[in-house]
């Protein structure tokens, strides 16, 4: 081997060691809580499938509980922070979240924009989503756009998307965001990446293919899936919106994980621990009185025709299956192996 080849060989070894090291992430603990739907008392605010009148208490209890978790690095909130984008709910959300001891990152949900009109639905005047984006600057948002990215810890890349359609509860990813995401991922290679969008992309079970539930899923999620194939650094896609306890499915090497609402039974949040080889998680109940817990469960059973599976009628047997599906107790804890270190 000539001297110049020897030098090139040594440089290649140094580079490969450096690149391998650059993928290594120190153990990092973080929380995801979703769909707080903060609804200060106003006309139209009630306790039904969502516990609107108790949403303030549920959010405050969640924040207090999270603040007790040792060594926590950050908190993620995948949207639906308010009932319908009311200014007082946005302001109160910012005030309550300021009590968190760690940074938080948030995206918008379909309820975080001006009124979603529906015949017979009482809505207060909401803010435009750009106003809410400005109210949440520094919590992912960095300027006027609904999408953002940041590295909350070294070598971990976090992307927030705006998957919402004005005036509708379904989701779609715009061409402009797809272009931006392609560019963002291309300049953040070799970082483990979490992408967060309010709407899910792939169904979590056969039951999710019910026609009325199509709007829980992105209309054009296939475009995102194509980008995830192009950038294998994308290891996780986090969503909310579905109001079901934490579930995951692995699709083409990406773990898609959906998160429960803290205002719909079973009111829960998820604690994650990312290590060199795994993402571990544990789902926790929001601490509430037994009366509120039972009320949440009763409301879940009584206000939920739309939310029921095809074969879960309001009978003792049907309710048992309906509860089991939404409680998802077999996925309250999981260890997900990472495909690269
Ligand atoms: Fe929601
Ligand atoms: Fe939603």
In short:
The protein has helices spanning 3-23, 55-67, 87-97, 129-135, 175-186, 221-230, 290-302, 316-327, and strands at 28-32, 72-77, 104-106, 148-153, 156-160, 164-165, 168-171, 192-196, 234-239, 247-251, 254-258, 268-274, 278-285, 333-337. With 341 residues, the chain is α/β, with parallel strands linked by helices. One fe (ii) ion is lined by residues 80, 109-111, 198, 241.
Q: Care to describe what's here?
A:
This protein has helices spanning 3-23, 55-67, 87-97, 129-135, 175-186, 221-230, 290-302, 316-327, and strands at 28-32, 72-77, 104-106, 148-153, 156-160, 164-165, 168-171, 192-196, 234-239, 247-251, 254-258, 268-274, 278-285, 333-337. It is α/β, with parallel strands linked by helices. The protein has one domain (25-337): Metallo-dependent phosphatases (Purple Acid Phosphatase, chain A, domain 2, 4-Layer Sandwich), CATH 3.60.21.10. A six-stranded mixed beta sheet has the order 3-2-1-12-13-14, covered by helices on one side. A six-stranded mixed beta sheet has the order 4-5-8-9-11-10, with no helix packed on it.
């Amino acid at each position: 081997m000539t001297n110049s080849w020897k030098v090139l060989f040594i440089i290649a070894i140094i580079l490969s060691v450096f690149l391998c090291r650059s993928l290594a992430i120190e153990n990092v603990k973080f929380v995801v809580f979703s769909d707080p739907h903060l609804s200060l008392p106003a006309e139209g605010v009630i306790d039904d499938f969502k516990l609107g009148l108790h949403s303030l208490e549920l959010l405050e209890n969640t924040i207090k509980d999270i603040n007790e978790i040792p060594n926590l690095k950050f908190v993620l909130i995948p949207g639906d922070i308010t009932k319908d984008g009311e200014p007082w709910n946005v302001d109160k959300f910012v005030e309550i979240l300021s009590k968190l001891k760690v940074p938080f990152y948030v995206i918008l949900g379909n309820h975080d924009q001006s009124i979603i009109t529906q015949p017979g639905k009482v809505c207060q005047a909401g803010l435009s989503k750009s106003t809410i984006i400005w109210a949440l600057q520094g919590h992912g948002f960095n300027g006027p756009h609904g999408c953002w990215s940041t590295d909350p810890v070294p070598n971990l890349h976090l992307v927030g998307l705006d998957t919402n359609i004005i005036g509708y509860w379904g989701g779609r990813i715009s061409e402009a965001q797809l272009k931006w995401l392609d560019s963002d991922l291309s300049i953040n290679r070799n970082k483990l990446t979490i992408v967060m969008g309010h709407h899910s992309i792939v169904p979590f079970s056969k039951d999710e293919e019910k026609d009325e539930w199509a709007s829980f899923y992105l209309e054009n999620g296939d475009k995102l899936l194509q980008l995830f194939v192009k950038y294998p650094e994308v290891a996780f896609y986090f969503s909310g919106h579905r109001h079901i306890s934490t579930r995951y499915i692995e699709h083409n090497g990406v773990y898609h994980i959906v998160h429960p609402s803290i205002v719909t039974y079973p009111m829960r949040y998820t604690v994650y621990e990312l290590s060199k080889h795994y993402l571990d998680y544990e789902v926790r109940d929001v601490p509430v009185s037994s009366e509120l817990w039972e009320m949440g469960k009763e409301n879940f059973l009584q206000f939920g025709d739309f939310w029921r599976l095809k074969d879960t009628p309001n009978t003792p047997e049907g309710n048992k299956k309906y509860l089991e599906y939404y409680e998802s107790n077999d996925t309250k804890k999981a260890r997900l192996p990472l495909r690269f270190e």
